[in-house]
Amino acid sequence: MRVAVLLTVAVLFAASTGGLMAFGTNESALLAGGVLILVGLPLVVLARHQLGSAFAITPEAKGLVTKGLYSRIPHPMYVFLDLALLGVVTMLRQSWLLVPWLALAAVQVLQARREATILERAFGDAYRDYRNRTWW
To answer: 68 phi and psi, to 5 degrees?
Structure first.
């Protein structure tokens, strides 16, 4: 269910961006894209900072981070990176870029599922309790 919700949100964001690129002005696309970047990038940096030593390039169970952005969003680095990249796509007004953006979002959903499996194995009930407290 959570994956379906995330993918639905991604498709809705992409459709909104596509509509803005098709029917909006250059100024509206620049403004909307700029806002997405200005919101997304600092939150990516904050999420990375909050992850601290639990950060890993490949999925590992170095620690269970449940504070800050992670208290409500299980994978905020993915979420806010996608938001910022959607801002870039919006500013460029190249609708074909929505296809790789959606593909990246789908890959990140799969990566998040792999990470969730590893964390659940490592932290058991503590991880399941954490996931029950997050928005998705």
So the answer is: 65, -140
DSSP 56: -
Length of the chain: 136
Token pair recorded at residue 62: 């170095």
User: What confidence tens digit (pLDDT) does each residue in 94-104 have?
Assistant: 989 999 999 99
C-alpha 86/C-alpha 13 separation (Å) is 8
- The rounded distance, in Å, linking the Cα atoms of 105 and 111 is 10
Q: State pLDDT tens for residues 56-88.
A: 988 899 999 999 999 999 999 999 999 999 999
Which of the 8 DSSP states describes residue 75?
-
User: Can you give the pLDDT at residue 113?
Assistant: 93
Evaluate whether 72 touches 83 at the Cβ level (below 8 Å). Answer: no
Contact (Cβ atoms closer than 8 angstroms) between residue 127 and residue 119: yes
Q: Which residues of 115-130 are buried (b: 16+ CB within 10 A; e: fewer)?
A: bbebbbeebeeebeeb
Token readout for 6 is: 């995330």
Model pTM score: 0.85
